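Anyone able to model this chain together with 2'-monophosphoadenosine-5'-diphosphate?
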Amino acid sequence: MGIKNIVGLIGWPVSHSVSPGMQNRAFLELGCHDWLYVPMPVATSPNSRIKEAVLGLRALGIVGANVTVPHKEAVLPYLDDLSDMAKAIGAVNTIAIDNEGRLIGHNTDGLGFISDLVEHDVDPKGMQVVVLGAGGSARAITYALLSHGCQNITILNRTKSKANDIAFSFRDSFKNAIIKTDTLAAIKDTPSADLIINTTSIGLKSTGDQMPVDKDVHFTKSQIVYDLIYNPKMTTFLKHAAKDGARTINGLGMLVHQGALAFAIWTKQKAPVAAMKEAALAAL
Ligand code: ATR
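re: yes, here you go
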């Protein structure tokens, strides 16, 4: 059977992404033999052709795409419509092209994170949550947490103004929630946090053994420390928290669930999450 439905991954770089392995495994698992997921590297500015790439999806009859770093916000002007979630977050990680050729932007990052918490039997609803970082991922997660009913979130970031921006954009929609902001050092003022989430890039292999917080910051057995980074599997931050007895979770599950939600948008089928996780682990 020939390939009829092509889905792509727009980003830079994309050569090391685990998404092609994970999505193609999902197609295989469900017998979607006419589907194929391919990397679509689109360079960054000053010579970025992101506009041509997005409009080219329609021209080439591509049925969907994922969008990753650094283009999640740059694609917005070229889309025909956005889901409420993508609109609120201001970033897109999934594009679906409908039968009329309309490009619809979605964001599955935040819900992917919540799905992974649910899979780990963690309900953030009544929890006091600390989000470290204030980039695109932090914005998606904060919005998803608020939408899920979480009412107490502190956003800590090196650049406090960016944390303020996130708080400002969500305060009106979630009037009952307390959204505080500060710099990373203020983690010392949140000893009763239930869930601490690292969304910064500190902990990626390129950053060595750095942590988003000082090493004299400690955690307790009742705390959950989540790091969006999944490579390495245990960042220095997670190892540090685990040594204190905290429960630790890495970002692999969020990666799988955001992909599973995107898969469901494109194929209108429930994604085979377990197979996708297996493929993601194998691709790492
Ligand atoms: P993503 O889309 O993955 O969230 P991003 O939007 O580039 O990526 O955000 C990166 C986050 O990591 C930001 O919160 C950034 O802090 P600043 O807003 O102050 O730039 C944080 N970050 C990156 N490198 C950092 C470092 N060396 N120290 C502290 N924070 C860092």
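The first strand starts at residue 5 and ends at 11.
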